[in-house]
Protein backbone atom coordinates (compact mmCIF):
# COMPACT_ATOMS: atom_id res chain seq x y z
CA UNK A 1 0.00 0.00 0.00
CA UNK A 2 1.31 3.45 -0.91
CA UNK A 3 1.98 5.62 2.08
CA UNK A 4 -0.35 8.64 2.18
CA UNK A 5 1.23 11.88 1.16
CA UNK A 6 1.70 14.47 3.90
CA UNK A 7 0.23 17.90 3.35
CA UNK A 8 3.60 19.46 4.09
CA UNK A 9 4.15 23.06 5.11
CA UNK A 10 2.27 25.95 3.54
CA UNK A 11 5.47 27.68 2.44
CA UNK A 12 6.75 24.67 0.54
CA UNK A 13 3.37 23.78 -0.90
CA UNK A 14 2.18 27.17 -2.17
CA UNK A 15 3.63 26.77 -5.70
CA UNK A 16 2.32 23.19 -5.80
CA UNK A 17 -1.19 24.26 -4.84
CA UNK A 18 -1.19 26.89 -7.59
CA UNK A 19 -0.10 24.28 -10.11
CA UNK A 20 -2.74 21.87 -8.91
CA UNK A 21 -5.47 24.48 -9.18
CA UNK A 22 -4.37 25.14 -12.78
CA UNK A 23 -4.31 21.41 -13.51
CA UNK A 24 -7.65 20.75 -11.84
CA UNK A 25 -9.25 23.63 -13.70
CA UNK A 26 -8.74 21.60 -16.87
CA UNK A 27 -10.92 18.79 -15.54
CA UNK A 28 -14.50 18.51 -16.83
CA UNK A 29 -16.76 21.13 -15.27
CA UNK A 30 -20.45 20.48 -14.75
CA UNK A 31 -22.29 22.86 -17.10
CA UNK A 32 -25.61 22.12 -15.35
CA UNK A 33 -24.45 23.40 -11.97
CA UNK A 34 -25.37 26.96 -11.00
CA UNK A 35 -23.87 28.42 -7.84
CA UNK A 36 -26.33 30.25 -5.59
CA UNK A 37 -25.21 33.19 -3.44
CA UNK A 38 -23.76 32.24 -0.06
CA UNK A 39 -26.30 32.15 2.79
CA UNK A 40 -26.13 35.10 5.16
CA UNK A 41 -23.26 34.59 7.63
CA UNK A 42 -24.19 33.96 11.27
CA UNK A 43 -22.21 35.94 13.82
CA UNK A 44 -23.83 35.29 17.20
CA UNK A 45 -25.57 32.30 18.77
CA UNK A 46 -28.13 32.79 21.52
CA UNK A 47 -29.00 29.26 22.65
CA UNK A 48 -30.29 27.73 25.85
CA UNK A 49 -29.48 24.34 27.35
CA UNK A 50 -32.30 21.86 26.83
CA UNK A 51 -31.60 19.39 29.65
CA UNK A 52 -33.68 19.81 32.79
CA UNK A 53 -31.12 18.22 35.14
CA UNK A 54 -27.47 18.85 35.97
CA UNK A 55 -26.24 15.46 34.66
CA UNK A 56 -27.68 16.00 31.18
CA UNK A 57 -30.03 13.03 31.23
CA UNK A 58 -33.58 14.43 31.20
CA UNK A 59 -34.51 16.42 28.09
CA UNK A 60 -36.94 19.30 28.22
CA UNK A 61 -38.68 18.75 24.87
CA UNK A 62 -40.00 22.31 24.59
CA UNK A 63 -36.52 23.76 25.13
CA UNK A 64 -35.04 21.32 22.65
CA UNK A 65 -37.55 22.46 20.01
CA UNK A 66 -36.58 26.06 20.70
CA UNK A 67 -32.88 25.25 20.36
CA UNK A 68 -33.40 23.39 17.09
CA UNK A 69 -35.31 26.33 15.66
CA UNK A 70 -32.61 28.76 16.78
CA UNK A 71 -29.76 26.73 15.32
CA UNK A 72 -31.60 25.81 12.09
CA UNK A 73 -29.90 28.45 9.88
CA UNK A 74 -26.44 27.25 10.93
CA UNK A 75 -27.40 23.62 10.45
CA UNK A 76 -28.83 24.41 7.02
CA UNK A 77 -25.56 25.99 5.94
CA UNK A 78 -23.56 23.05 7.24
CA UNK A 79 -25.84 20.47 5.60
CA UNK A 80 -25.78 22.21 2.24
CA UNK A 81 -22.00 22.68 2.37
CA UNK A 82 -21.53 19.01 3.25
CA UNK A 83 -23.85 17.81 0.51
CA UNK A 84 -22.21 19.95 -2.14
CA UNK A 85 -18.70 18.84 -1.16
CA UNK A 86 -19.88 15.22 -1.25
CA UNK A 87 -21.22 15.81 -4.76
CA UNK A 88 -17.81 17.09 -5.86
CA UNK A 89 -16.40 13.56 -5.55
CA UNK A 90 -19.32 11.38 -6.67
CA UNK A 91 -18.59 11.36 -10.40
CA UNK A 92 -15.77 9.80 -12.33
CA UNK A 93 -13.93 13.14 -12.07
CA UNK A 94 -14.20 15.85 -9.41
CA UNK A 95 -16.88 18.48 -10.10
CA UNK A 96 -14.67 21.57 -10.08
CA UNK A 97 -17.52 24.06 -10.55
CA UNK A 98 -19.25 22.76 -7.46
CA UNK A 99 -16.01 22.86 -5.49
CA UNK A 100 -15.43 26.49 -6.45
CA UNK A 101 -18.97 27.34 -5.37
CA UNK A 102 -18.44 25.87 -1.90
CA UNK A 103 -15.14 27.71 -1.64
CA UNK A 104 -16.93 30.96 -2.46
CA UNK A 105 -19.44 30.25 0.31
CA UNK A 106 -16.73 29.50 2.85
CA UNK A 107 -14.77 32.57 1.81
CA UNK A 108 -17.87 34.74 2.27
CA UNK A 109 -18.37 33.44 5.79
CA UNK A 110 -14.66 33.81 6.54
CA UNK A 111 -14.55 37.43 5.38
CA UNK A 112 -17.64 38.17 7.47
CA UNK A 113 -16.06 36.64 10.61
CA UNK A 114 -18.96 34.22 10.91
CA UNK A 115 -19.41 32.55 14.32
CA UNK A 116 -16.81 34.84 15.87
CA UNK A 117 -19.41 36.97 17.65
CA UNK A 118 -21.12 36.51 21.00
CA UNK A 119 -21.85 32.99 22.17
CA UNK A 120 -24.50 33.52 24.87
CA UNK A 121 -24.12 30.23 26.76
CA UNK A 122 -22.04 27.07 27.01
CA UNK A 123 -24.60 25.45 24.71
CA UNK A 124 -23.85 28.07 22.06
CA UNK A 125 -20.12 27.36 22.41
CA UNK A 126 -20.76 23.63 22.02
CA UNK A 127 -22.65 24.35 18.81
CA UNK A 128 -19.71 26.39 17.53
CA UNK A 129 -17.40 23.50 18.40
CA UNK A 130 -19.52 21.08 16.34
CA UNK A 131 -19.81 23.61 13.54
CA UNK A 132 -16.04 23.83 13.21
CA UNK A 133 -15.78 20.05 12.79
CA UNK A 134 -18.38 19.94 10.03
CA UNK A 135 -17.15 23.00 8.14
CA UNK A 136 -13.46 22.10 8.38
CA UNK A 137 -14.14 18.57 7.13
CA UNK A 138 -16.18 19.97 4.25
CA UNK A 139 -13.28 22.29 3.46
CA UNK A 140 -10.87 19.35 3.37
CA UNK A 141 -12.93 17.87 0.52
CA UNK A 142 -12.48 20.98 -1.63
CA UNK A 143 -9.02 21.90 -0.36
CA UNK A 144 -7.30 20.64 -3.54
CA UNK A 145 -9.13 23.21 -5.65
CA UNK A 146 -8.50 26.40 -3.66
CA UNK A 147 -6.24 29.22 -4.91
CA UNK A 148 -3.57 30.35 -2.46
CA UNK A 149 -5.13 33.71 -1.62
CA UNK A 150 -8.56 32.20 -0.97
CA UNK A 151 -6.97 29.48 1.14
CA UNK A 152 -5.31 32.10 3.30
CA UNK A 153 -8.64 33.84 3.98
CA UNK A 154 -10.43 30.61 4.89
CA UNK A 155 -7.48 29.31 6.92
CA UNK A 156 -7.30 32.42 9.09
CA UNK A 157 -11.01 32.09 9.88
CA UNK A 158 -10.84 28.38 10.71
CA UNK A 159 -7.85 28.96 12.98
CA UNK A 160 -9.69 31.72 14.85
CA UNK A 161 -12.61 29.36 15.45
CA UNK A 162 -10.21 26.61 16.53
CA UNK A 163 -8.51 28.92 19.02
CA UNK A 164 -11.84 29.97 20.56
CA UNK A 165 -13.04 26.39 20.85
CA UNK A 166 -9.73 25.28 22.35
CA UNK A 167 -9.81 28.06 24.95
CA UNK A 168 -13.39 27.21 25.97
CA UNK A 169 -12.90 23.47 26.32
CA UNK A 170 -9.55 23.87 28.08
CA UNK A 171 -11.13 25.92 30.85
CA UNK A 172 -10.60 24.61 34.37
CA UNK A 173 -13.31 22.17 35.42
CA UNK A 174 -14.49 21.34 31.89
CA UNK A 175 -15.24 17.63 31.60
CA UNK A 176 -13.01 15.69 29.23
CA UNK A 177 -15.86 13.82 27.61
CA UNK A 178 -17.38 13.67 24.12
CA UNK A 179 -17.20 17.46 23.75
CA UNK A 180 -13.42 17.23 23.97
CA UNK A 181 -13.33 14.55 21.27
CA UNK A 182 -15.30 16.83 18.95
CA UNK A 183 -12.76 19.56 19.72
CA UNK A 184 -10.05 17.09 18.71
CA UNK A 185 -11.78 16.44 15.41
CA UNK A 186 -12.13 20.15 14.70
CA UNK A 187 -8.48 20.77 15.54
CA UNK A 188 -7.38 17.78 13.48
CA UNK A 189 -9.37 18.86 10.43
CA UNK A 190 -8.13 22.44 10.74
CA UNK A 191 -4.55 21.29 11.34
CA UNK A 192 -4.62 19.10 8.23
CA UNK A 193 -6.31 21.74 6.09
CA UNK A 194 -4.12 24.67 7.16
CA UNK A 195 -0.82 22.97 8.05
CA UNK A 196 -1.08 24.33 11.58
CA UNK A 197 1.17 22.12 13.68
CA UNK A 198 -0.24 23.33 16.99
CA UNK A 199 -3.77 22.33 15.99
CA UNK A 200 -2.55 18.95 14.75
CA UNK A 201 -0.47 18.29 17.87
CA UNK A 202 -3.41 19.16 20.11
CA UNK A 203 -5.63 16.79 18.13
CA UNK A 204 -3.05 14.04 18.57
CA UNK A 205 -2.94 14.67 22.32
CA UNK A 206 -6.74 14.56 22.61
CA UNK A 207 -6.77 11.31 20.65
CA UNK A 208 -4.22 9.75 23.00
CA UNK A 209 -6.22 10.99 25.98
CA UNK A 210 -9.39 9.46 24.57
CA UNK A 211 -7.67 6.12 24.00
CA UNK A 212 -6.50 6.04 27.58
CA UNK A 213 -10.08 6.72 28.73
CA UNK A 214 -11.43 3.61 27.00
CA UNK A 215 -11.56 0.73 29.47
CA UNK A 216 -10.71 -2.91 28.92
CA UNK A 217 -14.43 -3.47 28.26
CA UNK A 218 -14.56 -0.75 25.62
CA UNK A 219 -16.55 1.75 27.69
CA UNK A 220 -16.01 5.43 28.35
CA UNK A 221 -16.68 6.10 32.06
CA UNK A 222 -17.85 9.68 31.56
CA UNK A 223 -20.37 8.51 28.96
CA UNK A 224 -21.57 5.66 31.19
CA UNK A 225 -22.33 8.35 33.75
CA UNK A 226 -25.07 9.65 31.42
CA UNK A 227 -27.37 6.95 32.81
CA UNK A 228 -30.23 6.06 30.47
CA UNK A 229 -28.49 7.91 27.61
CA UNK A 230 -25.15 6.10 27.99
CA UNK A 231 -25.41 4.21 24.69
CA UNK A 232 -26.39 7.36 22.81
CA UNK A 233 -23.38 9.22 24.19
CA UNK A 234 -20.94 6.39 23.50
CA UNK A 235 -22.13 6.54 19.89
CA UNK A 236 -21.76 10.32 19.86
CA UNK A 237 -18.27 10.13 21.35
CA UNK A 238 -17.11 7.47 18.88
CA UNK A 239 -17.93 9.46 15.76
CA UNK A 240 -15.20 12.13 15.99
CA UNK A 241 -12.61 9.61 17.19
CA UNK A 242 -12.89 7.36 14.18
CA UNK A 243 -12.88 10.21 11.70
CA UNK A 244 -9.72 11.47 13.44
CA UNK A 245 -8.15 8.08 12.79
CA UNK A 246 -8.81 8.57 9.07
CA UNK A 247 -7.34 12.07 9.10
CA UNK A 248 -4.21 10.79 10.83
CA UNK A 249 -3.86 8.06 8.22
CA UNK A 250 -3.79 10.78 5.55
CA UNK A 251 -0.69 12.15 7.29
CA UNK A 252 0.91 8.74 7.57
CA UNK A 253 0.14 8.34 11.28
CA UNK A 254 -1.59 5.31 12.82
CA UNK A 255 -3.79 6.23 15.77
CA UNK A 256 -5.95 3.12 15.65
CA UNK A 257 -3.56 1.07 17.80
CA UNK A 258 -3.40 3.50 20.73
CA UNK A 259 -3.84 1.92 24.17
CA UNK A 260 -3.63 -1.60 22.78
CA UNK A 261 -6.35 -1.13 20.19
CA UNK A 262 -8.76 0.76 22.45
CA UNK A 263 -10.90 1.98 19.58
CA UNK A 264 -11.62 -1.54 18.45
CA UNK A 265 -12.85 -2.27 21.97
CA UNK A 266 -15.09 0.79 21.81
CA UNK A 267 -16.61 -0.49 18.55
CA UNK A 268 -17.17 -3.87 20.17
CA UNK A 269 -18.97 -2.31 23.11
CA UNK A 270 -21.10 -0.15 20.82
CA UNK A 271 -22.04 -3.11 18.65
CA UNK A 272 -23.17 -5.13 21.66
CA UNK A 273 -24.93 -2.16 23.25
CA UNK A 274 -26.87 -1.42 20.08
CA UNK A 275 -27.57 -4.94 18.93
CA UNK A 276 -27.71 -7.05 22.11
CA UNK A 277 -27.97 -4.67 25.07
CA UNK A 278 -29.13 -7.38 27.48
CA UNK A 279 -25.77 -9.11 27.03
CA UNK A 280 -23.78 -6.07 28.21
CA UNK A 281 -23.07 -6.20 31.97
CA UNK A 282 -22.23 -2.48 32.15
CA UNK A 283 -25.73 -1.60 30.99
CA UNK A 284 -27.52 -3.83 33.47
CA UNK A 285 -26.59 -1.58 36.40
CA UNK A 286 -27.89 1.52 34.60
CA UNK A 287 -31.45 2.71 34.05
CA UNK A 288 -33.16 1.30 30.97
CA UNK A 289 -31.53 2.93 27.97
CA UNK A 290 -33.30 5.37 25.71
CA UNK A 291 -33.65 3.25 22.54
CA UNK A 292 -31.03 3.82 19.85
CA UNK A 293 -32.02 2.20 16.57
CA UNK A 294 -28.91 0.66 14.94
CA UNK A 295 -30.30 1.73 11.55
CA UNK A 296 -30.04 5.34 12.70
CA UNK A 297 -26.43 4.79 13.69
CA UNK A 298 -24.51 7.76 12.25
CA UNK A 299 -21.36 5.87 11.39
CA UNK A 300 -20.19 6.11 7.80
CA UNK A 301 -16.76 5.20 9.14
CA UNK A 302 -17.96 1.60 9.63
CA UNK A 303 -17.39 0.96 5.90
CA UNK A 304 -13.75 1.97 6.23
CA UNK A 305 -13.35 0.15 9.54
CA UNK A 306 -14.62 -3.14 8.08
CA UNK A 307 -12.63 -2.70 4.86
CA UNK A 308 -9.46 -2.48 6.94
CA UNK A 309 -10.18 -5.68 8.81
CA UNK A 310 -12.18 -4.38 11.75
CA UNK A 311 -14.96 -6.54 13.17
CA UNK A 312 -18.46 -5.37 14.02
CA UNK A 313 -21.60 -7.17 15.07
CA UNK A 314 -23.63 -8.72 12.24
CA UNK A 315 -26.50 -6.35 12.93
CA UNK A 316 -24.24 -3.37 12.18
CA UNK A 317 -22.76 -4.99 9.09
CA UNK A 318 -26.35 -5.55 7.95
CA UNK A 319 -27.06 -1.84 7.85
CA UNK A 320 -27.10 -0.78 4.18
CA UNK A 321 -23.90 0.94 3.15
CA UNK A 322 -25.76 4.06 2.05
CA UNK A 323 -27.40 4.26 5.47
CA UNK A 324 -24.07 3.98 7.24
CA UNK A 325 -22.81 6.88 5.17
CA UNK A 326 -25.79 9.11 5.97
CA UNK A 327 -25.01 12.76 5.43
CA UNK A 328 -24.25 14.10 8.90
CA UNK A 329 -23.42 17.78 8.93
CA UNK A 330 -21.19 17.66 12.02
CA UNK A 331 -18.96 15.14 10.24
CA UNK A 332 -18.86 17.15 7.04
CA UNK A 333 -21.20 14.78 5.22
CA UNK A 334 -20.50 11.37 3.72
CA UNK A 335 -17.40 9.74 5.19
CA UNK A 336 -16.91 7.83 1.93
CA UNK A 337 -16.54 11.04 -0.06
CA UNK A 338 -14.14 12.46 2.52
CA UNK A 339 -12.08 9.29 2.15
CA UNK A 340 -11.94 9.80 -1.62
CA UNK A 341 -10.70 13.34 -1.16
CA UNK A 342 -8.03 12.24 1.32
CA UNK A 343 -6.95 9.37 -0.94
CA UNK A 344 -6.78 11.51 -4.08
CA UNK A 345 -3.38 12.91 -2.99
CA UNK A 346 -4.04 16.19 -4.78
CA UNK A 347 -2.86 18.14 -1.77
Q: What fraction of residues sit in β-strands?
A: under 5%
Structural class: mainly alpha
Number-wise, the strands total 0
- Give the low-pLDDT segments: 1-31
Shape: globular
Mean pLDDT: 85
Largest sheet: none
Number of helices: 15
Q: What sequence of helices (H) and strands (E) makes up the elements? A: HHHHHHHHHHHHHHH
The separation of the N and C termini measures: 18 Å
Gyration radius from CA atoms, angstroms:
20 Å
> Helicity, in percent?
55-70%
Description:
The chain is 60% helix and 0% strand. The protein is mainly α and 347 residues long. The longest helix is centred in the first third of the chain and has 28 residues.
Compile the SSE list and pairings.
Layout: H1 10-24, H2 61-88, H3 96-111, H4 122-142, H5 148-169, H6 178-194, H7 197-213, H8 221-224, H9 230-250, H10 258-275, H11 281-284, H12 301-307, H13 314-317, H14 321-324, H15 335-343
Amino acid sequence: MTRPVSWGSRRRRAPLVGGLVLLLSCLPVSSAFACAPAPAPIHNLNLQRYYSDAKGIRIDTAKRRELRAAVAPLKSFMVETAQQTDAVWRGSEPDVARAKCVLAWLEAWARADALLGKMSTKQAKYERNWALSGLALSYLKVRPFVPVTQHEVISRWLLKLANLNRAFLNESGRKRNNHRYWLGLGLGAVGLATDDERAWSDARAIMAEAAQSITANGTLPLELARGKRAVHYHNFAAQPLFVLIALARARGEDWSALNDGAFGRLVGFLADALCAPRSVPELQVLPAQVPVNPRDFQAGWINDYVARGGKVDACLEGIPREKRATNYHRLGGDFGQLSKALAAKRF
